[in-house]
């Protein structure tokens, strides 16, 4: 498995209504990060503050100038959904993640173990295998 190259595919794929945030995350944003909370409506995240309509893309995804690399403007305060991604090799294949290599597809069990080890610090206990 390759290191993340910041292609942004995961953020682009899930930034269109595919993410959620816990009540505690939303409450924390409301109190500590009102600029993030402005994009929350009725418990849904990434809603246009002006119109109340869901955004088609995460407002915090930023493309690096003149590059095909992306960064997250709220990386340290991003939702758990983002912190836990990717959770499985199948998910990475489905999302066309550029971290996947041929050897991962040839031995998905070993690749899943490598992914689990790589993500161990960002996943809660119930997601760990």
Keywords:
mainly alpha; 129 residues; two-stranded antiparallel sheet; 4 strands; single chain; 7 helices; globular
Topology (SSEs and partners):
Blueprint: H1 9-14, H2 23-32, H3 34-37, E1 40-41, E2 44-45, E3 61-63, E4 70-72, H4 80-84, H5 89-94, H6 102-106, H7 108-118
Antiparallel strand pairs: 1-2, 3-4
What gyration radius follows from the Cα positions, in whole Å? 16 Å
Strand order of the largest sheet: 1-2
Taking all residues together, what is the mean pLDDT?
Answer: 91
User: Hey, roughly how much beta strand do the residues contain?
Assistant: 5-15%
Number of domains: 1
Summarize the main sheet: 2 strands, antiparallel
Which term fits the overall shape? Answer: globular
The count of helical stretches stands at 7
Terminal residue distance: 18 Å
- The percent range for helix content is 25-40%
Quaternary structure classification: single chain
Write down how many β-strands occur, each being a DSSP E stretch of 2 or more residues.
4
Low-pLDDT runs of 5+ residues are: none
Order of helices and strands: HHHEEEEHHHH
